[in-house]
Amino acid sequence: MTGSTAEWNDSGWHTAARDFVPASHRHLPMLRVYLPFIDRDGNVVRWSEYVDVEEHSASLDWFEATRHLLGDNPGISDLDSCKGELDAPTAQALRDAIGDLPLRCLRWVGYGEVPTSPTVRVFGEDYFEADLLAVDVKAERRIPEFAWDPDGRLAWGGRLYPDSLIVAAELSTFRQLRNDPRLDSVSVRADRDELPASAGD
């Protein structure tokens, strides 16, 4: 699938949710998967513990949604974004959705990995393309911000140090992810929804 990275825009800041998956996958139904926060004791805290994600659009901004809760829940300010590092239930849910589907991914050069292919620019940042490995979707591992399959069945994208991912998936996989109790997720309206700044930035 070499060359497919050109389907992403190489300019700077983007907000439209649909821009976070390659053009070849934008016809698929989309959802936003919220990655959990971590509390002071290292415990996983789901978005849904403080925000009813089902009652909000996929444009939900963590800071705006929880600002009014700080007085009664001061612990919110102590939560840290997972910054793309998966917890075990989230990793397993994503692995179950991927199954044996071969995926390519983009790895941000800023994480310190040595590029194994020429770098490409996406949203103003440098990445290199590689195969997505099983270890990439594992607990305590930072998930690559962009991944896709060559047949247009599954893709995801997020900001650097993501607090959530925009996922485009064929209907059966979309439903699997959307109904998975291990995940906080909401359907994306591609014509309206945006991806705000990550709480991990």
**Structural class based on helices, strands and sheet pairing:** alpha+beta
Strand count, sense and barrel status of the largest sheet are:
8 strands, antiparallel
Order of strands in the sheet with most strands: 6-7-5-8-9-10-1-11
**Could you list the spans in which at least 5 consecutive residues all have pLDDT below 50?**
1-6
Radius of gyration from the CA trace? 16 Å
Could you tell me the number of beta strands? 11
User: What's the mean pLDDT score?
Assistant: 91
Order of helices and strands: EEEHEHEEEEEEHE
- As a percent range, the share of helical residues equals 10-25%
Count of DSSP-assigned helices: 3
Strand content: 15-25%
Shape: globular
Q: In angstroms, what separates the terminal alpha carbons?
A: 30 Å
Describe the structure concisely.
With 201 residues, the protein is an alpha+beta fold. It has helices at residues 62-66, 88-98, 171-178; strands spanning 30-34, 37-38, 44-45, 80-81, 104-108, 119-122, 125-131, 146-148, 154-157, 164-169, 184-188. The chain starts with 29 loop residues before the first strand and ends in a 13-residue tail after the last strand.
